[in-house]
Each structure stands twice: as structure tokens, then as C-alpha cells.
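__Record contents__

***
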Amino acid sequence: MKLQVGDPRIKWEAFRDTQDEKEVQVTEGEETRTVGQTTEEVQAVNYNGRSAWRREQVLRSDDLGDRRVVLLVDKRTFAPLYVEARFSRFVDQYDYLEKPLEEPAFDLYAVEMMLRLLPLAEGFAAEISCYQVAERKTVVVSVQVQGREPVATGRREEVDAWRVAVDFGYAEQEYWVTVEPQELLKQRNVLHDGRRMEFVRVDPPEVVEQEVERGEELDS
């Protein structure tokens, strides 16, 4: 399927406020090490009189460099409103309301949000026109479900997840999205030097505390 901004087949307003934290792990040969951490927060806001989703994603890593991306999209259509990306000392931003695109397109950073809304299923495939702010051009992003498999969550449980391949044109990545509800559990891509990088969900503090308490009860 080809997705358009505001496509009526997608329930855009079904997205919900969310917070997430993931470890960044790099594997080289047989060795895996943690090189950083990412956090994500999505919340409903009012932006210039429009109901919007605001997504802030932060990467903290001495090895990879720090990064912060703030994206605002229309709550009803996912039309992009504003984006700001900070990579170490480099800052890039684009105001879609001041400089509307000639042809409607999503913002590239919205793809990871959209994966949680698409009707994922065996054989599902989609093409999404996205504006790549860094290059100031529109690209076609391809999404393809590769299968369904159990994946460990931060709580050390296994849940069913869709394995989804996403081709951004300049890079390919894999995502594991839980079947119900659809949440991003893991992300994987291969770096230019052959190392594998994964973003893996970690336990929120309250879950870790609950597990410690249960362990103490069992020991008593």
C-alpha cells in the first residue's frame, strides 16, 4: 500500500502518550557492549492552535555522540509541523508551517511512530513518501513485514512481535513491533564498518523494583 498524509485507512489519533528507554548495544564479532542509551517521550500538545503529537528522542553516547530530535506532527493526519535535530554541535531544523512542501509528505523521523499504527500482518508492505530534512529532499521509505517471532521484553518475558524491515534509501533497519498493543521493542541496523547496533528496551525503574521485591519475598 502507498500511504498518504492523513490516509483514512490509518487511525492516526489512536497513537497515545508514551515513554520509553532503550540501551544501545554494539556487537563486533562475539563481543557485545553497551555504548549508550536512548529515551523517547511522545505527548499530545497544542502547537500554533493545532492538536499535535510532540516526540522527543534523546541519544546519550560517548562512542556515537549525543543526539536530540524533536518532532511535531498533526494529531489527526500526521502531517509534519516542525522538526529540530541536534547532533553534537550540529543543529538542523525545519518549520513546515512557514515553508510548506510542494507535495505532501511525512517527516522521516515520524516513521518509527507510524510503525505503531500500521496494520502489520504477514505479507504487509507499504511505501511512504517522507521529507528528509538533512538533505532537503523527499524520499520513498519501504516497509515490509518479514515475519512474526517471539522477542524478549525488558521484563525478560517473551512476547509475539512482527519483524519489520524498513529501507530508508540511505540505510536499512529492522524493527520488532509487538503484535498487541503495537510497541517498538527492538531496533537493529548494521554500521558501515560491519558492526551490528541494536536498541533494546530496558526495564523501567518501577518494574525493576517490583522484581526485587518479589525476589525478597521468595527468599524470606
